[in-house]
Design brief:
Number of strands: 24
Largest sheet: 8 strands, mixed
Shape: globular
Radius of gyration: 30 Å
Length: 596
Amino acid sequence: MHPYRSHHCAALRKSDVDKTARLSGWVHRVRDHGHLVFVDLRDHYGVTQCVAESGEAMFDQLSALKAETVVTITGEVAARSADTVNPKLPTGEIELRARSLAIQSQAEPLPMPVHGDHDYGEDVRLRYRFLDLRRERMHRNIVLRSQIIASIRRRMIEQGFLEFQTPILTASSPEGARDFLVPSRLHPGQFYALPQAPQQFKQLIMCSGFDRYFQIAPCFRDEDARADRSPGEFYQLDLEMAFVEQEDVFQAVEPVVHGVFEEFSNRKITARPFPRIAYRDAMLRYGTDKPDLRNPLEIADVTALFARPDVEFKAFKGAIEKGAVVRAIPAPKVADKPRSFFDKMIDYVKALGAAGLAYIVFEGGEGKGPIAKFIPAAVQAEIRRLAKVGDGDAVFLSCDKPLAAAKYAGAVRTELGNQLGLIEPDCYKFCWIVDFPMYELDEESGQIAFSHNPFSMPQGGLDSLNNKPPLDILAHQYDIVCNGVELSSGAIRNHLPDVMVKAFELAGYTRNDVETRFGALFQAFKFGAPPHGGIAPGIDRIVMLLADEPNIREVILFPVNQQAQDLLMGAPAPATPKQLKELHIQVVQPPQVKKT
């Protein structure tokens, strides 16, 4: 018999009764019933109950075991009595009658328990992540992650994609976040950058004559943490295709995404093809370019109604004259809510930075509320029509500059959906957001900047760049969204040198900037580049949704905390003087802020 195990801890069944078996694992729990002692032995695969009776040689040894000690137990497989069968365990019909015990590794007192579902703080969980990962839920999440990646890889290969690996040490690229820099020992004063994404490399792969590329790519961005984003690093399904239009990318990605969600969940999933929603429509109807379509509420534009001469609500009219818009958010069946419900919604949006929020309650065929008297009945009727509300309903009204109004209206829509129980349960609702603007106005500098991916092809090509106002130019850019979570951004790429130069010129880059910063890509375009496009769905976010976890750190093996610190390994940490000398680097500490 193998020195450690003949079976794993989820393998034994009733058909194995009377056989001798050997199991190894962690002591999950010890239960001393006086005349019987039970040890739940756990390994990667599951749990088996081991038992000894009082008076047997093993009774005292099993009783003395501490949680998480690693042991090997040998004994005979016995059937449990009918009243002690545990239907929740695959091994619930049997137990192992212990005859010998070998302690492989003694566990000290635990800083956090593994048995049970205790709620421990993030610092403790991350500092002792190897214990945290032994817990059933966490272990299951990481196994799920591995299975999802294997499924994605298989589906990509079946579609004719080839898996390549791109460099980790590379040059800085404007992907929208700060780079992690790596100093060069051989080239003093010069730095590599860890890739924010394999963007330029995957385009170069297309220029090299390959047709369909993918990889499960690590990406590195020095950005703040969020519930759906881990600071520092993340993984994405990076893919690129030659000789394609936008719809070709969609047709390649949808079977993979839909198939994976179908394979690993029992929930209802949006049928293919996924809905296509223009960015402008998404911002109007949902107040965000990441709409949660489980929420049935849709926002309406009522700006023109509040600009009418017969509307006397001066606060909105004055704002509209200065470029503001008015968005109406329907609130079904809230007419009987107390005044505090509406006040709390106003406080909620003010906490987000809004100046305020107006509302009208429709009851008995007329509008009621603080502003209703300023709005003629005919206008109220039109608001009801546009917002699709009736008696017993209300509308909340957000007035601000277009982007701010969308933000606040979208937040109110989400809050109402949650408070009123409108979110459709047990489903994954997908959509594509398309027709993103190529450029946006930087609020701080007032300069034109890329709004999405700088390597995208503008709709209309060079003609649009030369003849349209930059803020009116749309790009062949798209996002895939699920339940309000952006899974991925992608684009049909610009593959023409003159278009690339002009596109960057409008964003404030010179031709020399383009040739210097993106020299390899620019050169490749000069020697015959195919039309190409791609996308990069986030692996971590896909697993988070399928594991039904609210925080992305619950599906990452060894995550960092909110401050981008690895508490387990102690990173980041100071470098030694020798290391700094080799790298020709001197550390300059930031000035201390004096306390007043």
